[in-house]
Amino acid sequence: MAFDTVEFRKALGSFATGVTVVTTRDKEGIPHGLTANSFSSVSLEPPLVLFCIDKRSNCLPAFEEGDAFAINVLSDKQQDISNRFAFAEERWDGVKTTTLQTGVPILAGCLANLDCSMHARFDAGDHIIVVGKVEQLLLGAEGNPLLYFKGKYRGVEIE
Q1: Contact criterion met (CB below 8 Å) for 62 and 130
Q2: Considering 4, 42, 70, 121, which has the largest number of Cβ atoms within 10 A of its Cβ?
Q3: CB within 8 A of 102, min separation 6: which ones?
Q4: Where does residue 103 fall: left (phi above 0), alpha (psi -120 to 50 degrees), or beta otherwise?
Q5: What pTM, to 2 d.p., does this model score?
Q6: What pLDDT is stored for residue 141 in this prediction?
Q7: For the chain, how far is it from start to end, CA to CA, in angstroms?
Q8: CA–CA distance, 74 with 146 (Å, rounded to integer)
Q9: What residues in the chain have per-residue pLDDT under 70?
């Protein structure tokens, strides 16, 4: 059964997701990052997470050759960071980072940061599914999540 891809995107957009920035370094040590809402937990034992990356992404080679990445879970105060890593040429200008066990960039001010070693990669249509083993994590300050729903940023108040 075939259906319109516009309608398919609308249906998928009906599922509210959190917003992350996924970061890594290439072989030369240059940082790369992209905004992703395709993040999911996979397993508690071992601690595995995944994200999906479009095969057309200019960051794909860094994630294919790298042995580590970080998931940076954004707060509702970090919409500018999400936009920067989704659209800007100079994504790293003025962005505060640190590193943990794997040495990939960890963004400051996030709700959580998951430092991951590469576990597996799977071909999936026009995307690659990237699975990582969480090696270290940081829980950030309390705050509300940045959400994406029906093509727009949204927020939710947590009491």
Answers
A1: no
A2: 70
A3: 67, 68, 69, 70, 115, 116, 117, 135, 136
A4: left
A5: 0.93
A6: 76
A7: 44
A8: 6
A9: 1, 157-159
